[in-house]
Write a structure and sequence with these properties.
Low-confidence stretches: 7-12, 186-195
Strand order of the largest sheet: 3-2-4-5-9-10-1-11
Structural class: alpha+beta
Shape: globular
Largest sheet: 8 strands, mixed
Radius of gyration: 21 Å
Helix content: 25-40%
């Protein structure tokens, strides 16, 4: 059996063991911050040193999250189910992110866009880029499901004298930028988002993409070899709302692998501990989050979070079609079983049983916003358990306030399995 390049979920996978990442926090998602001029401010900026989600939400929105979906999705001004009327060829989902980033350059609202392309000659190996033209943005279309040190491109933007930037980033990258944005400003109430003296920017537009269980490029290749019947011909793949992975191949055919069919005993080792210690799947500090979780198949789930996020969405409205928000199913029914699985993963059922489970998941499982709630709550529970088990000394600093409130409905089930309450650690003294 081919092993994965990394350690297992039930071990600690410290990416800082990589020579290039030496000197960084024990938990590192290789966001690129330490490759930039911000490295000396790493202790104040890195969410794995101290998560400052609460204070950044107060700065951006003037309040903390309210009960209900905000605990799971983050604060937002507008939530919608949308898609491009004319999808962008080769783009992820229908191409909203690509179109928006290119349009910002076309209109002169930004001078550059920091985003992730691919290394020439590869399909998925990430390559951070500073795009200066719409064509350069469009060349980066498509999914690159690997860790990318994106923030290292801040130095290139600075050297070029750019003062108006957009960044297409994951939750950890966006959180780092928000924290840097608030540093060096003193009383920044008159500055607003993006006008940071430390960053030296007039504008910083943050386009957030959901991110979960990201992996290194080597682990991504191992994943494809483990999952696909023809990994060498995969040109694109997506985790979908029908409880399956869709893999698109060179010849145009689509391979679908049910989540229940994943050989998790082989895949446990590909997820870095930093990603298993992150609690921001929905990218809650972005101006706008563009993903898929809360939408039906073929549509996108969009959360405009700030006033600027609504303006960014307005730039696209004429190119979009919409449908009503919807939800179906009951996510809570499966949560007790999921919590039990966190303690001990059961053996994979026989193939006929897995086929039946997959059928029932698609037919009776949570859908729409209920699917989004289910996935996010499962990630919060799993990652909370990982931190509690592997990094208990860091819990008070890296688990944000809303996590405990979001998963508290499952507190009795958690306590029954793990013999401890689901609550913040008690303060000493």
């Amino acid at each position: 059996m081919e092993p994965g390049p990394s350690k297992g979920l039930h071990d600690v996978s410290l990416m800082s063991h990589d020579r290039r990442l030496s000197g960084r926090p024990r938990l590192c998602s290789d966001c690129g911050l330490c490759d930039s001029f911000l490295r000396p401010r790493m202790a104040e900026t890195c969410l794995f040193v101290h998560n400052r989600m609460a204070e950044q939400e107060l700065r951006l929105h003037g309040r903390r999250r309210q009960a209900g979906d905000e605990l799971r999705f983050g604060i937002f001004r507008e939530q919608a189910i949308l898609r491009m009327k004319v999808p962008v060829a080769g783009a992820q989902w229908t191409g909203m992110v690509t179109t928006l980033a290119a349009r910002l350059l076309e209109r002169g609202e930004v001078e550059g866009v920091i985003l992730t392309g691919t290394v020439p000659g590869t399909r998925f190996q990430p390559r951070p880029l500073l795009a200066r033209t719409p064509a350069e943005v469009r060349a980066c279309a498509g999914n690159k499901p690997s860790l990318s040190p994106l923030l290292g491109m801040l130095d290139e933007a600075r050297a070029a004298g750019l003062r108006r930037l957009a960044v297409v980033g994951t939750g950890c990258q966006v959180q780092m930028l928000r924290q840097a944005e608030s540093l060096g400003t003193g009383d920044s109430s008159d500055l607003g988002p993006g006008l940071s003296k430390l960053l030296d920017l007039e504008r910083l537009d943050l386009i957030g993409i959901p991110c979960s269980d990201n992996v290194t490029y080597l682990d991504q290749q191992f994943f494809l070899r483990t999952i696909s019947r023809s990994p060498e011909t995969v040109i694109h793949y997506e985790f979908m709302q029908d409880f399956s992975l869709w893999l698109h191949h060179e010849d145009g055919h689509r391979e679908r692998v049910n989540y229940i069919d994943f050989p998790m005993d082989r895949l446990q080792g590909i997820f870095p501990s930093a990603c298993l210690s992150c609690f921001d799947y929905p990218n809650a500090l972005a101006d706008i989050t563009i993903g898929y979780l809360g939408a039906p198949l073929g549509w996108q789930w969009v959360l405009a979070r700030t006033a600027r996020g609504v303006e960014l969405l307005d730039l696209l409205r004429s190119d979009l079609e919409a449908r009503p928000l919807s939800a179906a199913g009951d996510r809570t029914r499966g949560m007790p079983r999921f919590i039990q699985m966190l303690a001990r993963r059961p053996a994979r059922p026989p193939k006929p049983v897995r086929a039946l489970i997959a059928f029932l998941q698609r037919r009776r499982g949570p859908q729409g916003l209920e699917f989004a709630r289910a996935i996010i709550e499962m990630k919060l529970l799993r990652n909370y358990r990982h931190v509690r088990e592997k990094f208990p000394g860091l819990e008070a600093r890296i688990v944000p306030y809303h996590v405990y409130e979001a998963i508290q409905p499952y507190g009795a089930d958690y306590a029954a399995v793990f013999g401890e309450p689901l609550e913040p650690p008690r303060r000493q003294g």
